[in-house]
NADH-quinone oxidoreductase subunit N (Novosphingobium pokkalii), 487 residues
Amino acid sequence: MELLRSLQITLAEEVLSVSGLVLLLVAAWGGDKAARLISILSVAVLAVCALIAAPALCGSAMGPDVTAFAGQYRADAFAAFAKLLIYAGAGVTLIVAPAFFERVRGMRAEFPLLVLFAALGMGIMVSAGDLLALYIGLELNSLASYVLASMLRSDERSAESGLKYFVLGSLASGILLYGVSLTYGFTGTTSFEGIRLALGHGLSTGATFGVVFVLAGLAFKISAAPFHMWTPDVYEGAPTPVTTFFATAPKVAALSLLMRVSLEAFGAQPHAWQQIVIFAALLSIVIGALGAIGQNNIKRLMAYSSINNVGFMLIGLACANQPGAAAMLIYLAIYVAMSVAGFVAVLMLKDADGEPVEAISDMAGLSKTRPGLAAALAAVMFSLAGIPPLFGFWGKFVVFQAAVQANLLALAAIGIAASVIGAFYYLKVVKVLYFDEATDKVTGKSDLAHTVLLVIATLFISPLGYLLTNWLHGLAGNAAAALFHVA
């Protein structure tokens, strides 16, 4: 009976696993000609998994009733919130990818399968209740991501980004695994609940090193400074649909995993990791802002923007309380929408031959030739900068509000000041779009699916997004409450 109950709780991961294996056979028989069909079916599978996960979030699921396999897996409201964002990011990737890859004749049947298996790994990551489940999910996601980054074998930049991601990712996995072994050695368990109980009796020097190494390994996965060095190169070199994927689904999974490990496993000793998180937050905000100023490639600029925004989200985690966790989740949901809008807009920047236009200088005067696309891209930039009344402002506001309420006044003040620096490079893009002499480089036609997705995402980050604040706060509150249920 216990096994049957566990299988029922892990239904979403079972659907992904079985569907992935079945579609793998379809790919083997149909070849690359079946790639578009497999992509459509994969999106349908992700939609089904979202429907499976949604009731747990709406019903504030938490506690032993949603725990499976002796505490290894938790299908609580927090996991459901993260999974909905993960499935949304993966689904958007599968929708925008065919038009991009078919132009370069690089659409392969295994692409949607890799996205599905990466989503499976990410689902295990955010539902992990044990360090072993954490590592299994993390590696399943990482192995698929390394291949996705180097998907365009005819493009040297793609191959280079895949290799860099693999080498640095392997190093980070080694650091994380060493931290896991130290944590197990000094607490006697790999269970998050067991680690929390063990650390409640005191924190030894060895356990402190374990906490530091685990957080360092996870900091790489979220591209937080000083472990951010891979992000600009991978974002620029990977195919743009893959970059869209990296900026959404894996980012959500890694940040959610960091929240669960910090607040659940290490929750009994918040002072042991708060200083690390505060340092990473401030460094990410500053490096992300300063690093983006001199960029002329829009994908590299978005990479530094990602580092910058991770820093702001970590301010919510540094609060080490439920309001801070809820604020972080709200920011994360808004950031996913901003990333989708930004990278879909980048996908639509094409010249007359359909070649991508990535240089910011080549977008000069876009408001005169493609006013709709320029307006959407400007909305993304203003929202990422946190300029009201766009919805990105609300994400920063709730995070800073949580920091002030947690008496982290200095952190909030520095974060607000640093956000002003970040506004410079966002406004620079808007200035190029609207005030520079037109270059007429962006003249290619846009795919219908890209246009629809851009409209939806742009409406979400527009002032209309404020209509969803009560709903979003309610869902984020349910998810955050599940993290503190053990307390």
Residues 214 and 360 are 38 Å apart (CA to CA).
